[in-house]
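Researcher: Next sequence.
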Amino acid sequence: MSAPVDIAVDAMILAAGRGERMRPLTDTLPKPLVPVRGAPLIEHHIQKLVAIGVRRIVINVSYHADALMRALGDGARFGCELLYSVEQDALESGGGVATASKHFRHGAIILISADIFSSFDYARLLLVASEIREGRRDAHFVMVPPTEGEPGGEFALDDRGRIHAGEPRLTLANIAVLASARCQSWPRGERFKLLPHYQSWVAAGRVSGECFHGVWCNVTRVEDVTRLNAL
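Model: Next structure:
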């Protein structure tokens, strides 16, 4: 089945981090360009987004920004338009989204971190994006079971698909859909994290979610790259 020509949702990939724990690979290479299973990490996300009909992707860049933009170009070879939000100094996740939000055209934005690798099907987010555009909720989080040795355990999920602050805790998979207007109301050019805003939305009962049990890895160390490439 062919993808829609241009669905009413944009996407953003967070790609401004330095990747300190992945040195020496990231001494001369931005982490999103580290090869995993035959392609740079970020290209897996771009290809999966294009496959479901996303034709416009915003990427925030900072560390080795020029190298990342040269490698990806304008998106023509992927079949989409790539827009870059350049940060002189990395603005953390929240500041990065807020500053890039001037590029958001639709009421919902698919948000993905460049430094994860997963088999999650992004097509699952399209219905959720439609409901967020209609104002039924503020966000939808994909969660994964806690991973040994990794931080996480931010929220819980009830049997109605609602995120809450109880138990048992799951970990944010760094795949989400957000209401664009919420992000556009935040201050631009300032450094702050997404999590406090997520916590506020959850407390207000405005966030849905799902737990994913397939292949998922937060690629933060050289060992993660080696293990993924060996599988």
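Model: The chain has one domain: 10-230. The longest strand covers residues 171-179.
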